[in-house]
Specification:
10 helices, 2 domains, elongated, single chain, three-stranded mixed β-sheet, Rossmann fold, 389 residues
Length: 389
């Protein structure tokens, strides 16, 4: 089996031991509790050389802290980029068969044999802290391989046409009642359809410059951030428990993409659809309201039919609502309810289209549509809602 390049791997290990993930919650730098070897252990192999957990250090061999941290660093999850079959960073190593079982055995062992450098006993404070740190990293590695709903905090990068650099988003751990903390594939598909106000792009979604856009259910902020980067002023909204992470993502990407031009372009506000009058933006009117993938329960169409008229300047002939939804078969009735709800408040679909994309859960089909107040729509261009998917 091939041996790992020691210089690059020692650098990677050193970087990992001083990273926030490795030091969070502890006062002593992890790198001071272990010795970073000039040559990594012979059991640690180059990419592709290890195909099974049997090639990893056996628990019964009592591997040292250096060996364990080397392996845990090699198989750490990298920053995710976009979605799809090849969403992982190309430098990520293939995971050996049985790797999670090996991690579980390590975790169950308690690592009682681990000693800090210079310690005469595995029971002293330094050794105990080192064990705790390594066990914490092992638990994180298990969580990383437990599917999206079991994964710890993560960072994603997204490449979107027309931007000078990628969008970087933090996603906290996903919980069933905080789905807005995940970046969904629909937001990337939506963002990839946008073009700047001065860009000639047939078939894309463009908006009038100089007018602030309202986004409902912004989540981690991908769609709204891309609009800001393209030159639009956007007010992004979501529930109180979502907004803190949204604000962080806006600040991170604003500094990368548009702060040099206009620091006031992005606004973030709490907007609970069940009590919109409590929102700090209550009373403001927008000519464009957008939202993506926020119709997944039977209560939402009715709530949206109440919120949209409150914030859309329906008296303007340029008023519009732009929607993108995934075509999940299980939610066909919710989509139909949304179309009926928008029709019931006198909005008419005037344009729409199908798109394909990916999510963490596989390939998805999507449908976007533009709705305008029926009073401003020529009957000749109004679409029949019964033909919508």
């Amino acid at each position: 089996m091939a041996s790992l390049n020691s210089s690059s791997s020692s650098s990677s290990l050193s970087s990992h031991l001083s990273s926030p993930a490795a030091t969070s919650g502890f006062t002593t730098p992890l790198s001071s509790l272990v010795s970073i070897p000039h040559t990594l252990p012979s059991r640690v192999f180059a990419s592709g050389a290890v195909t099974h957990a049997l090639d990893l250090p056996p628990v019964k061999s009592y591997p040292t802290a250096d060996v364990l941290l080397s392996v845990l660093t090699l198989y750490a999850k990298r920053v995710r980029r976009n979605f799809g079959d090849n969403e992982e960073d190309g430098t990520e190593r293939a995971i050996p068969e049985g790797y999670v079982d090996w991690l579980t055995r390590l975790l169950g062992s308690g690592l009682s044999w681990i000693r800090a450098p210079g310690s005469s006993s595995p029971d002293d404070d330094a050794s105990e802290e080192l064990r705790e740190r390594i066990l914490d990293i092992i638990a994180t590695r298990i969580a990383e391989r437990s599917g999206r709903t079991g994964a710890p905090d993560m960072v994603r990068e997204f490449d979107v046409p027309g931007l000078k650099c990628s969008v970087v988003l933090r996603e906290p751990s996903l919980t069933a009642d905080s789905l807005g903390l995940k970046t969904w594939g629909s937001s990337l598909v939506f963002a990839q359809l946008f073009r700047g106000p001065a860009t000639a792009a047939k078939g894309a979604l463009q908006f009038e410059g100089g007018e602030r856009i309202l986004e409902l259910g912004s989540g981690t902020g991908l769609a709204g951030i891309v609009l800001c980067a393209l030159g639009y002023a956007v007010t992004m909204t979501d529930l109180p428990e979502i907004v803190a992470n949204l604000e962080d993502n806006v600040q991170t990407n604003g500094a990368r993409l548009w702060y040099d031009d206009d620091r006031e372009r992005a606004e973030v506000a709490v907007l609970d659809w069940t009590s919109p009058e409590r929102s700090p933006i209550y009373g403001q009117k927008f000519k464009t309201v957008i939202f993506a993938d926020i119709a997944y329960s039977h209560e939402q169409p009715a709530l949206l039919s109440r919120v949209v008229p409150l914030f859309l300047d329906s008296a303007s002939p340029k008023a519009q609502v732009v929607v993108l939804l995934p075509l999940r078969p299980a939610f066909a009735d919710v989509r139909a309810s949304l179309w009926t709800a928008l029709d019931g408040i006198q909005f008419a679909p005037v344009r729409g289209g199908f798109e394909s994309g990916w999510d963490d859960f596989g390939k998805e089909e999507y449908y976007w549509s533009i709705w305008r107040p029926r009073a401003h729509v020529d009957r000749g261009i109004e679409m029949n809602i019964n033909t919508l998917p």
